[in-house]
Amino acid sequence: MEFDTKTRPSYTSDKTSFAYISARDRWPVILTGAIDDVHRAVSETTDEEKRTEGKRIVEELAKLNPLPDDGKPDIASYNKELEQLGSPSWFNIPWLYAECYLYRRIATAFALSSHWKQYDIFARQKMSTFRSSRPAVLELAGRYHELIKQMENKGNKSQEELDAAEKILFMEMCEICLWGNATDLSLLTSLTYEDIQKLQGSEARKASEKNIIANDLEAAYNTLKKAKSEGKKYRQVDIVLDNAGFELYVDLILAGFLLSSGLATNIILHPKAIPWFVSDVVPKDFADLLNALANPQPFYSTPSEDEVAAGKTPTPLSQKEIDELAFLFKTWSEFHSEGQLMLRTSTFWTEGGSYWRLPSSAPKLYEDLKESEIVIFKGDLNYRKLTGDGIWDPTTPFTTAIGPLGPGSGVNVLALRTCKADVVVGLKPGLDEELKGEDKSGKREWAWSGKWAVCSFSNGK
Ligand code: F6P
Ligand code: MG
């Protein structure tokens, strides 16, 4: 629309694009999963009215027509955009709009019901996948505890040594936070739980360092360090969250590190206001994660339905593991109750367009983000929205591709994104061709699986 980039966005009609693959292969799987979930919930209820309503919701889910008004301000712009697109089909529509529309449509169907208003069709999957990330969760809890102890115990190290250590830790924490994005639930259509566990371990992380193909973490660190050295009392970092479960857990690890090291004094987390792209964080996921950590033994040791069916009994947590998780819970809940770690929702994040629209669509949110030292955007969808999901030349500077949020915007942007879509910018000349290798089909397949990543920074001040 009016404020968007003029670079053409990715369309589902382009057969060489990931947009096409996702419309053809992934949406049906995601929608069928959603329908299965409602059927399951319908069969669990004895309330006849609720059952009838649940069945009607299922019929609503895959339509592509104007959204019914659920009282929220974004419905009008969704419908206006749909009208401007003419009569699009699922296979001839801008990919970004179509996917947002799909999840917005699902939310509308529930919002307009009387018995299913708060229902999150993805909640079951989000929690069970988090539970299956147990090895990586425990490994990181141990590492985090160790690290905080080291930071508190400065010994007789010089300021220079302390600064060097802080910088290395910042990089490591950001990388942990970055790779936590590689395993979102929309990829579960092609990955097994075992694949995910392998991707989440520290070995995999180290091996993946070379796969960060644009890396501005040093500039981001220098920005935070400078604000701290200048003696600024209030230094906020915002994290525009992506996925719940393991990714939220690593986001909290980064948030905790920034607060404990004094690189930030306050963290604002931005979850979504409605269930979104299967696994994105809604406020309840944050509460559920803390509850699981508050009482980890029953969470991990009570067999799941699948484990019961397979006759498996999970190994109970050791006392050391319980203590390390308790340490995390205590640190995070203290930051939360002190007001240093806060959640702030906005309906802007679930609108149908790109973040090029932020200054005009959500001026208040835009002003808030200018207060931040750095706004960290997690994940693939946030990156697509920052860059307008455009078919940019991959050597375009990141600062150009994010348009109104680039230099002069007043917002410092750091994108931590594992690549799961075609759009990519900020690459060295020739790298895209190298990664495409022998494949002359025009497809950018290397960028679809979360194997490669970018950490791109734009100084907007
Ligand atoms: O359909 C694939 C997809 O939904 C992409 O549109 C999206 O970019 C990605 O999966 C979700 O990834 P992330 O959770 O990193 O935003
Ligand atoms: Mg996501």
Would you give an account of this structure?
- The protein has 461 residues and is an alpha/beta fold.
- It folds into two domains: 18-123, Transcription Elongation Factor S-II, Chain A, CATH 1.20.930; 127-458, 3-Layer(aba) Sandwich (Rossmann fold).
- It is 51% helix and 7% strand.
- It is built from 20 helices and seven strands.
- It has helices at 18-44, 48-60, 75-84, 95-111, 123-132, 134-152, 159-179, 193-200, 202-208, 217-229, 246-261, 283-294, 296-301, 305-310, 319-337, 358-361, 363-370, 379-386, 398-401, 431-436, and strands spanning 212-215, 236-240, 266-270, 341-343, 374-378, 413-418, 453-458.
- It has a seven-stranded mixed sheet.
- Strand 2 (236-240), helix 11 and strand 3 form a beta-alpha-beta unit.
- It is globular, with a radius of gyration of 22 Å.
- The protein binds 6-O-phosphono-beta-D-fructofuranose and magnesium ion.
- Magnesium ion (MG) binds at residues 184, 242-243, 277, 279-280, 379, 381.
Main beta sheet: 7 strands, mixed
From N to C, what is the helix and strand string? HHHHHHHHHEHEHEHHHHEHHEHHEHE
Assign the CATH superfamily of the largest domain: Uncharacterised protein PF01937, DUF89, domain 3
What is the spatial order of strands in the main beta sheet?
Answer: 1-7-6-5-2-3-4
The percent of residues in helical segments reads 40-55%
Q: What is the second-level CATH architecture of the largest domain?
A: 3-Layer(aba) Sandwich
Q: What general form does the structure show?
A: globular
Any idea how many domains?
A: 2
CATH level-3 fold name of the largest domain? Rossmann fold
What class would the helix/strand composition place it in?
alpha/beta
Binned strand content? 5-15%
Q: Ions, cofactors, ligands: which are bound? A: 6-O-phosphono-beta-D-fructofuranose, magnesium ion
- The end-to-end distance, rounded to whole angstroms, is 26 Å
Given this structure, which CATH class of the largest domain is correct?
Alpha Beta
Low-confidence blocks of residues: 185-191
- Mean of residue pLDDT? 92
Domain Damage-control phosphatase ARMT1-like metal-binding: 23-434
Pfam family, one: ARMT1-like_dom
Keywords: Hydrolase, Manganese, Metal-binding
EC number: 3.1.3.-
